[in-house]
Amino acid sequence: MRPFIKSGQVGAVRVATRPDAIDAEWLRRLRDVFGLATVELGVQSFDAGVLSVLGRSHSQSDVANAMHVLKSLQLRTSLHLMIGCPGERPEADFEALQQIRELRPDFVRIHPLLILKDTILERHWRAGLFKTLDLETAVDRAAWLTRELESNGVGVIRLGLQPNELLGESVVAGPYHPAFGDLVRGRMLRSRVAHLIQGAFEAGPGGPPSKQLKAVIESPEQLSGALKGPKKTNLEWLRTRFDLSSVTVRVVQDAATNHGEIKVRLHHITGSA
């Protein structure tokens, strides 16, 4: 592998494994001989009960020990987190956030539980032992986790599973969407704009939201698609939420928007600001 890395054909080597399968000597050899740079841990949940239902063999202490070993070897680290698992408690996301803050991985992957055919989970699901998340709830939860993690310096590099033909044919239940990550990023932008619209009402025309007003969102081009959402569903949600005449996006390119800044302007439908 080293010759391929040296020639630039391979950027770096990354492996994914279980937290309880970490071995320092094995990883040191992979690093020194084969150019291993990143190790991703399939944590899935920080709840012992959930891990038992999922048939996972690791514990929270295994995760902490694995992270200690990986950091001592100066390897980049990633954690895989799965939401919507059987037996999950209401505070699961908050507890996962606290654990990840303490572990300080370089990045995280988040995806909702999907039920695949011919599995034990499928039998349990068909027997009514648990319910999967609906898509809206999964997007909301992933958006909250992503926002909180990234605001604490932990990057989220993937949302949802990589779509492929085999996965699509195997999923029998759960919030599968081939563009799950786009939905989550769009939900985060929608929340951001909702906050801006509320602030514009308080600082601008005054009074309650009104159909006599329209909102124009100024956005950089790279964010405009996710901001609008599929079939402009995010814009319609904002229009309904604030009882506006219309909500539109205007793509602008200036020093501010080039850094991802979004602005909201409210106008009376007569054209006066």
Explain what you see.
This protein is of the alpha/beta class and 273 residues long. The protein folds into 2 domains: 2-178, Transcription Regulator spoIIAA; 186-268, 2-Layer Sandwich (hypothetical protein PF0899 fold), CATH 3.30.2320. The chain is built from 11 helices and 10 strands. A 5-stranded parallel sheet has the order 1-2-3-4-6.
Overall geometry: globular
CATH class of the largest domain: Alpha Beta
CATH architecture of the largest domain: 2-Layer Sandwich
Strand order of the largest sheet: 1-2-3-4-6
Alpha-carbon Rg, integer: 22 Å
Number of strands: 10
Order of H and E elements: HEHEHHEHEEHHEHEHEHHEE
Q: How is the CATH topology of the largest domain named?
A: Transcription Regulator spoIIAA
Low-confidence stretches: none
The secondary-structure class comes to alpha/beta
Quaternary state reads single chain
Number of helices: 11
Strand residues, percent: 15-25%
**Approximately how much helix is present in the residues?**
40-55%
Count up the domains: 2
What average pLDDT do the residues reach?
A: 89
Keywords for this structure?
273 residues, alpha/beta, Transcription Regulator spoIIAA, hypothetical protein PF0899 fold, 2 domains, 5-stranded parallel sheet, 3-stranded mixed sheet, 10 strands
Provide a compact summary of the structure.
By secondary structure, this protein is α/β, with parallel strands linked by helices. The protein is built from eleven helices and ten strands.
